[in-house]
Amino acid sequence: MQKKILILDFGSQTTQLIGRRLRDLSTYCEIVPYNKLPEDLTEVAGIILSGSPFSVYDPKAFKLDLSKIRGRLPLLGICYGAQSLVHQAGGMVEASGTREYGSSQLTILSSDDPLLRGLSPKSTVWMSHGDTITTLPQGYHVIASTDMVENAAFRIEGESTWGVQFHPEAYHSEEGKLLLSNFAKIAGVFGQWTARSYIENQVKELKGMIGTDKVLMALSGGVDSSVAAVLLHRAIGSQLTCIFVDHGLLRLDEARKVIEDYKELGLNIVAVDASSLFYKALENVTDPEEKRKIIGRLFIEVFDKEAHKIEGIKWLGQGTIYPDVIESLNITGMVIKSHHNVGGLPEKMKLKLVEPLRTLFKDEVRGIGRELGMPDHLIDRHPFPGPGLGIRILGAITPEKVAILQKADDIYIRMLRQADLYNKVWQAGAILLPIRSVGVMGDERTYEYTLALRAVRSVDAMSADWVHLPYEFLAKVSNEIINQVKGINRVVYDISSKPPATIEWE
Predict the structure, then answer these.
(1) Burial of residue 356, with CB atoms counted within 10 A of its CB: 0-12 exposed, 13-18 middle, 19 or more buried
(2) Helices then strands (H, E): number in the chain?
(3) Tell me, what DSSP letter sits at residue 117?
(4) Hey, which residues does 496 pair with through a beta bridge?
(5) End-to-end CA distance of the chain
(6) Looking at 70-135, which runs of residues are DSSP E strands?
(7) CA–CA gap between residue 162 and residue 154 (Å, rounded)
């Protein structure tokens, strides 16, 4: 049984960062809304209370009766979490004269405290609050202060319960990671989470859950679905059947290469070339959302048709990962965005859903893939949108435009690899614009398409910044594309960040 630290989310913008810091420490954790605390805590080793946009005395504040968990397990309150521990015990939390936001110097008052063990006597921490704890309840002892905040950190006597008014998860908190590692050690789970242990636990759970049932899975060639399929195959072998639908909007020769990779991995793969069907349905369609709906609907129809040729399917496998799960819920548990990899399939086919990666971040998925023995070129692939080049061709889609973009994109990606830049970029791709401009090639006047190149760096695609690719490299790529790809006579580079722009153009 994999013991974990449970992070109760009270709506803080940095809740995910707490999870990331713990995972970086090889410590397994999960984030749940504050009002979804499970009754059975046998798999929970410790609990962290996140920050919140509310004040503890705000009538709209998210409230949880902390007496239910205090003293049962190691407990750490961060910012709002710390103030809740004080407020509910009768202490005083009041509005600060000035909002404290930014770096502060933390002074340790109790160096022998387990939570602060190894921290420097003074270090920089990140503050972000408009309230402060002015009076601690009886039995609460201050263990660290800043110039502005006397009760910056405290411990409750006789309990493994702490509160800090700064954010140890923030990058600006110099020794925040050490503080979180101390808490993980107190909880007894520090360093226990590894790719190998995750695979072993998942294989055992999958075997017990699926039994002798058959599982069907749609594969896209992307990292998430590929790793999920290999992990499922490790658990249930030939009970898994994978369907690869080629909608004609993949990268150059990608369908053939991906199918070869899957077969080498031992997967039972059914490949379907449905490109002509997709091209016909997308003819003269220019609205981005309509494109997505058409591609999604047809994918489901093609997949469903192939699935009905296989008897006895009980489960649908999907490569959902943790950022998808987190974004799909707000802290009240209401769905605000659907992230099913193949939206609509579980409902249409009346299948049970199995998502072996749903508690992992993208970089952890890649770690699992490596531990499973998957080739680097498959698990280090850049993210690629489900609608493929359909949303990288602005305006109407035609087979001719797809061919132009495939050739240009292939040159761009190949040259990124040759220049040792591919793995320094989170995601890269080319976008064919519905803009024609005048050019001169040889002695002839041309009137051809403009191509935009995009390269961003990110962690989990929540935000992204454009990559400063060398000018010399961009010049070479531009020349190569214009010389080699008939139909393009101008290349531009996108220097927009997310937000306000998005990674994809449509």
Answers:
(1) buried
(2) 14, 18
(3) T
(4) none
(5) 43
(6) 75-78, 92-108, 122-135
(7) 6
- Which tokens belong to 478? 């531009």
* Closest listed residue to residue 459, CA positions, set 149, 39, 171, 154: 171
CA geometry: angle at 52 spanning 50 and 58, to 5°?
130
Q: In what order do the strands lie in the sheet with 313-317?
A: 269-273, 240-246, 214-219, 313-317, 352-354
Structure tokens at 71: 């003293």
Please state, in angstroms and rounded to a whole number, the distance separating the CA atoms of residues 358 and 164: 30
As given in the structure block, the two tokens for residue 62 are: 């998210």
Find the mean pLDDT for residues 333-348: 46
Q: How far apart are CA 128 and CA 214, in angstroms?
A: 50
SS3 label, residue 118 = coil
Question: Distance between CA atoms of 185 and 181, rounded to whole angstroms?
Answer: 6
The H or E element that residue 223 is part of is helix 223-236
Q: How far apart are CA 24 and CA 310, in angstroms?
A: 42
Q: State pLDDT tens for residues 420-468.
A: 999 999 999 999 999 988 887 766 778 899 999 999 998 766 678 999 9
Partners of 243 in the beta sheet? 218, 270
State whether residue 66 is helix, strand or coil.
Answer: helix
SS3 for 116?
helix
SS3 140: strand
pLDDT at residue 271 is higher than 80: yes
Three-state DSSP class for residue 186: helix
| Mode of pairing for the β-strands spanning 465-466 and 444-457 | antiparallel
Q: What is the mean pLDDT of the chain?
A: 89
What is the chain's Cα-based Rg? 26
pLDDT above 80 (res 328): no
Quote the tokens at residue 249. 């909007």
Residue positions annotated with a catalytic role: 79, 167, 169
- What does the block give as tokens for 131? 């309230």
Contact predicate 10/37, CB 8 Å: no
The encoded tokens of residue 286 equal 């220019």
Calpha distance 57→276 (Å, rounded): 61
Q: State the DSSP string of 301-334.
A: HHHHHHHTTSTTEEEEE----HHHHHHTB-TT--
Q: Side-chain half-sphere of 301: how many Cα atoms within 13 Å? A: 11
Q: Which two tokens stand for residue 63?
A: 């409230």
Strands 161-164 and 75-78, by their bridges, are parallel
Both structure tokens of 294: 């058409």
User: CA nearest 427: which of 401, 397, 403, 460?
Assistant: 460
- Per the structure block, which two tokens stand in for 482? 């214009």
